[in-house]
Predict the 3D structure of the following.
Amino acid sequence: MTTTALYDIPGPRARARHRAYGLGATLAILALLGWFLSLLFATGQFTAAKWTPFLYKGIQQLLLDGLGNTLRAFGLAAVLSLAFGGVLAVGRLSDHRLVRWASTLVVEFFRAMPLLVMIFFIYVALRVAPLPALVAGLTLYNGSVLAEVFRSGVNAVDPGQRQAAYALGMHKSQVMTYVLMPQAVRAMLPAIISQLVVALKDTSLGFLITYEEFLHAGKLIASNLDYDLPFIPVVLIISPVYIGMCMLLSWLANWVSRRQLRNPKVEAAEVAAPEPGTLLPGSRHQPPA
């Protein structure tokens, strides 16, 4: 009989109970969705007057430009956050006390500072353009969080791996590059993707400093039309796009994880069986003549 180390296999009654729970939860979700849609229909959110503006090429182009600006800010912030977090993680893992303390101070400061405050400070006090101000704020905050993710991931690797690598004569950078990081990445990947999803959603803060990203484009559409202000239709268009981008990042993380499992970087080398009479390494006696 097939068993599992995590839990006992449910019997017929338990499986029937689980199906009943699943059916009840599904009905509850459908009822909630139906109630939500009924409210939208009752308030006239699906009338043609509120959805007709989205057929205009100018509004469609405005949304596409906003989406492009969002992806541009996210791409820059994601790359810089990963690089900044890697540098800070290396500093926190350093054997030099001064470097370790300085990196810890930077991480704790920017991780505790509200992101909106940082963006406003860079934009207003330092007089930086909207895009660099938004990217800088996202980089400082998310990079500090990712530094802790990297550090905890490396420290989670079995200490025996590190000791074995040093015993083979590797220096610290080689141990980090070839032994610790490849094993830590698999454990860190869900947390990294989760933080990148946060960075993607936080790009919407750019509309507060007049950066023309996706949410800013929706705000312009919803507030500048002279009839039947389509706030809800704008939300119904923008929200699925954000959800789709976040789901795409999650799918990418799962794909990378499966690819790593299928194609390990280190494979066992084939070793031929010793011929009869061969002296094995470590043997104390010579084979008989």
About this structure: Residues 47-260 form a domain with the MetI-like fold fold (CATH 1.10.3720.10). Residues 1-5 have pLDDT under 50 and may be disordered.
